Amino acid sequence: MAKRDYYDVLGVAKGADAAAIKKAYRQKAKELHPDRNSDNPNAEAQFKEANEAYEVLKDENKKAAYDRYGHAAFENGMGGGGGPRGGQGDFGSAFSDVFDDLFGDFMGGGRGGGGRRSTAQRGNDLRYNLRINLEDAFAGMQKTITVPTAVGCGACNGTGAEGGSEPQTCPTCSGMGKVRAQQGFFTVERTCPTCSGMGQIIKDPCNTCHGQGRVEKEKSLSVNIPAGVETGTRIRLAGEGEAGMRGGPTGDLYIFIEVQDHALFERESTNLYCRVPVSIATAALGGEIEVPTIDGGRSRVKVPEGSQSGRQMRLRGKGMPALRGGNTGDMFIELAVETPVKLTSRQREILKEFDQLSEENNPQGSSFFDSVKSFWDSMKG
């Protein structure tokens, strides 16, 4: 099959200048790259054809020979400079000319287009888990914490170099932090093994930080814990994280709050719940009980006559404050009618007598057993 005209392959007019040829090739390479055309079985052959055309037309001498003799210019050694080997062209040379333009966004820049890699790297963010009790969550507090972290080295001012010397450009990657290697049809980019991707090397590292620009140290911080925090609340302290590498910006510190369980109160959002035991006599006759509140105070609550276990009473405004302002929650008192234990003989006599006299005073029991009788009767039917 006869070869197509190289100008037709790239879609440019004869006599097009180098800029137009390169632009056309870039467009073709994008359209025909096999990785982007897995469903097109002809893509690889068309891609190679475009590379072969560009390999000839990008070179002034080869282009002049091709304009004069056509494809015959590269047959039997004609045209000088040895045209496309085996009719395929120097794929690596042609493709690498526009590699950066095509994939620079994905590979981190390219020759002549990305600039040198900065050695400064932002420090890591740190996490600190802080446990507080419910009383502190109610009132808010100032808490001093000690955080192990990395801080900028004072001996070298964070540069990592001894005596004020400057880092030098890495000779392996020329400051890019990455190196490229040709593997068949493709150019592979890897982190530079000499500078570990930093782009620079330190000939005379600081004796204190060994070239890192930072040292391990504990620091104390005063943290404001606002009233109303709950488990999972996150507090951010900007710039209090790990120091950056070689003068890079400092990371942030995130404090995660965990509010411990309380012996008396259970929390649900801004509301508090307190389960209070009451005697049978108080529940039956009614009366008053004294209950604690989260602020350390006391409140008297009236127990209605005939109260049952599980009955709740509300104390408005005695709960937790909302974290970001607004109303304060409520406190709910839940009654737990307590059955007495270890009865004396006299108490047993009184309770037996009371039980005989109170058959009509147990509405829930009467209702339940009436329902049980109806159930059994229906089963017999």
From TrEMBL:
<dbReference type="InterPro" id="IPR001305">
    <property type="entry name" value="HSP_DnaJ_Cys-rich_dom"/>
</dbReference>
<keyword id="KW-0235">DNA replication</keyword>
<dbReference type="Pfam" id="PF00226">
    <property type="entry name" value="DnaJ"/>
</dbReference>
<dbReference type="InterPro" id="IPR036869">
    <property type="entry name" value="J_dom_sf"/>
</dbReference>
<dbReference type="GO" id="GO:0008270">
    <property type="term" value="F:zinc ion binding"/>
</dbReference>
<feature type="binding site">
    <location>
        <position position="195"/>
    </location>
    <ligand>
        <name>Zn(2+) 2</name>
    </ligand>
</feature>
<feature type="binding site">
    <location>
        <position position="170"/>
    </location>
    <ligand>
        <name>Zn(2+) 2</name>
    </ligand>
</feature>
<dbReference type="InterPro" id="IPR036410">
    <property type="entry name" value="HSP_DnaJ_Cys-rich_dom_sf"/>
</dbReference>
<feature type="repeat" description="CXXCXGXG motif">
    <location>
        <begin position="170"/>
        <end position="177"/>
    </location>
</feature>
<feature type="region of interest" description="Disordered">
    <location>
        <begin position="297"/>
        <end position="321"/>
    </location>
</feature>
<feature type="binding site">
    <location>
        <position position="156"/>
    </location>
    <ligand>
        <name>Zn(2+) 1</name>
    </ligand>
</feature>
<dbReference type="GO" id="GO:0051082">
    <property type="term" value="F:unfolded protein binding"/>
</dbReference>
<comment type="subunit">
    <text>Homodimer.</text>
</comment>
<dbReference type="InterPro" id="IPR001623">
    <property type="entry name" value="DnaJ_domain"/>
</dbReference>
<dbReference type="InterPro" id="IPR012724">
    <property type="entry name" value="DnaJ"/>
</dbReference>
<feature type="domain" description="CR-type">
    <location>
        <begin position="140"/>
        <end position="218"/>
    </location>
</feature>
<dbReference type="GO" id="GO:0005737">
    <property type="term" value="C:cytoplasm"/>
</dbReference>
<keyword id="KW-0862">Zinc</keyword>
<keyword id="KW-0143">Chaperone</keyword>
<comment type="function">
    <text>Participates actively in the response to hyperosmotic and heat shock by preventing the aggregation of stress-denatured proteins and by disaggregating proteins, also in an autonomous, DnaK-independent fashion. Unfolded proteins bind initially to DnaJ; upon interaction with the DnaJ-bound protein, DnaK hydrolyzes its bound ATP, resulting in the formation of a stable complex. GrpE releases ADP from DnaK; ATP binding to DnaK triggers the release of the substrate protein, thus completing the reaction cycle.</text>
</comment>
<dbReference type="InterPro" id="IPR018253">
    <property type="entry name" value="DnaJ_domain_CS"/>
</dbReference>
<protein>
    <recommendedName>
        <fullName>Chaperone protein DnaJ</fullName>
    </recommendedName>
</protein>
<dbReference type="Pfam" id="PF00684">
    <property type="entry name" value="DnaJ_CXXCXGXG"/>
</dbReference>
<keyword id="KW-0863">Zinc-finger</keyword>
<keyword id="KW-0479">Metal-binding</keyword>
<feature type="binding site">
    <location>
        <position position="173"/>
    </location>
    <ligand>
        <name>Zn(2+) 2</name>
    </ligand>
</feature>
<feature type="repeat" description="CXXCXGXG motif">
    <location>
        <begin position="192"/>
        <end position="199"/>
    </location>
</feature>
<dbReference type="InterPro" id="IPR002939">
    <property type="entry name" value="DnaJ_C"/>
</dbReference>
<dbReference type="InterPro" id="IPR008971">
    <property type="entry name" value="HSP40/DnaJ_pept-bd"/>
</dbReference>
<feature type="binding site">
    <location>
        <position position="209"/>
    </location>
    <ligand>
        <name>Zn(2+) 1</name>
    </ligand>
</feature>
<feature type="binding site">
    <location>
        <position position="192"/>
    </location>
    <ligand>
        <name>Zn(2+) 2</name>
    </ligand>
</feature>
<feature type="repeat" description="CXXCXGXG motif">
    <location>
        <begin position="153"/>
        <end position="160"/>
    </location>
</feature>
<dbReference type="GO" id="GO:0042026">
    <property type="term" value="P:protein refolding"/>
</dbReference>
<feature type="binding site">
    <location>
        <position position="153"/>
    </location>
    <ligand>
        <name>Zn(2+) 1</name>
    </ligand>
</feature>
<dbReference type="GO" id="GO:0031072">
    <property type="term" value="F:heat shock protein binding"/>
</dbReference>
<keyword id="KW-0346">Stress response</keyword>
<feature type="repeat" description="CXXCXGXG motif">
    <location>
        <begin position="206"/>
        <end position="213"/>
    </location>
</feature>
<feature type="domain" description="J">
    <location>
        <begin position="5"/>
        <end position="70"/>
    </location>
</feature>
<dbReference type="GO" id="GO:0006260">
    <property type="term" value="P:DNA replication"/>
</dbReference>
<feature type="zinc finger region" description="CR-type">
    <location>
        <begin position="140"/>
        <end position="218"/>
    </location>
</feature>
<keyword id="KW-0677">Repeat</keyword>
<dbReference type="GO" id="GO:0009408">
    <property type="term" value="P:response to heat"/>
</dbReference>
